[in-house]
Amino acid sequence: MTKWEQLYKEKLQTAEEAVDMIPDGAHIIQTIGFAEPPAILRAINQGAKDGRWTELHMYSLLPLAATREYLLAEDVRDVIHWHSLYASAGDRDMIASGVADFIPNYFHQVPRLVSEFIQNDVCITSVSPMDENGYMSFGISVDYTSTAARVAGKTIVQVNENMPRVHGDSFIHVSEVDSIVEELAPIPELPTPARRDEDDAMGSIIAEMVPDGATIQLGIGGVPNAVAQSLNGHKNLGIHTEMFTDSMVDLIQDGVATGSNKSFHPGKALWAFAAGSRRMYDFLDDNPVVEARPVSYTNLPSNIAKNNSLISVNSTIEVDFSGQCCSESIGTLQYSGTGGQHDFARGAFDSPDGKSIVAFYSTAKSGTLSRVVPVLKPGAVVTTPRMEVNYLVSEFGAAQLKGKSIPERTRAIIGLAHPQFRDDLTGEAKKMGYL
Known about the structure:
Elements lengths: L2 H9 L3 H5 L7 E4 L7 H12 L6 E5 L4 H6 L9 E5 L7 H6 L3 E2 L7 H8 L4 E6 L7 E3 L7 H7 L2 E6 L7 E2 L2 E3 L5 E4 L14 H11 L7 E4 L3 H9 L7 E2 L3 E2 L1 H8 L15 E3 L1 E2 L3 H7 L5 E3 L2 H4 L2 H4 L5 E6 L2 E3 L4 E2 L2 E2 L2 E2 L6 H10 L4 E5 L3 E2 L4 E2 L1 E2 L17 E4 L2 E4 L5 H9 L4 H14 L3
Parallel strand pairs: 1-2, 1-5, 2-3, 3-4, 5-7, 7-10, 8-16, 11-12, 11-17, 13-15, 14-16, 17-22, 18-25, 22-26
Antiparallel strand pairs: 6-9, 18-19, 20-21, 23-24, 26-27
Helix pairs in contact: 6-7, 8-9, 9-10
């Protein structure tokens, strides 16, 4: 038995034994939902029910099945207080009702937040099995987890054989963790969203804006998937993104995304977290072409700008005549979060020949509401300010806003609205003195 195998054995515990090191009142940083450690979460749930703690504070984002079952359950809410770093379907209603809290943030700053501004008593996450040198990989959640695990008062990991071993800044040594729990569990998968006609229209529009040799950042959803499919005829694309998805596997395997023209980490697809199918997780496993880094690195605007022709594609909920994009709230309702949209809006524009693109469906609620509005709803959060917006795209076309006056912006943005709303929007713009 090697030195590291011996140390691993000494730190190996049951989940129940591991959570005993969590003090009452602890603030716990949990990995992103797709890398949630179900055995540890189950033990925390049982401890909360048994009176092991009177109060715990949990910080994470995108809570999935195990987190919802064990940490967000009604019968432990008097003990476990949820603090969300990005509102989503898993915790949106809890935030709206005041049961959970939301912490506004730029995604690239979250590693610093969990190091300096949020109390970090314990970090919990899933990791890949240890290699012969004593290293375990954070797998699909390097983002802020890699930082949180290294600076936490205590770090508890669940070794899961299904977690891919990912290259890049994704490793933690057995000597750096305090407790190890072993349990095989499926990695949550992200289903491919249903495609809409609008997705295909925007996919084609955006693909035409991407030159050969560009480096791309795509989010998740129908529009980014359609963009990826529309890029099949392109050459020598690169990938620098916060979220790695199945569509990027296709681009790499089809020889479209070679990374050969990248000026920053040439030949490598750079990302911070991954969410998708088991096929995609298998693709990441021990694959030197793809490298994961913390979001403090991938999403740092100055690093994004080091790529030549960085084209970023993100989405928004509502846009007003001046170009302000509300991408995370519906009025005062926190619907999602800023994520990396602002990071990439700034970084892509600062990239030589780069473009920042914010895409949106022209209507909501089955075509009854326009997403182009004269002014944002009261309480709406401005995710990307009008000064940062470069290109807007709807299924009806694209509009470049940099250097444009308010009247010029207004005309261009109304042109992206659904035709049934354009006359009313034009009338409102005239009343406001914009036209």
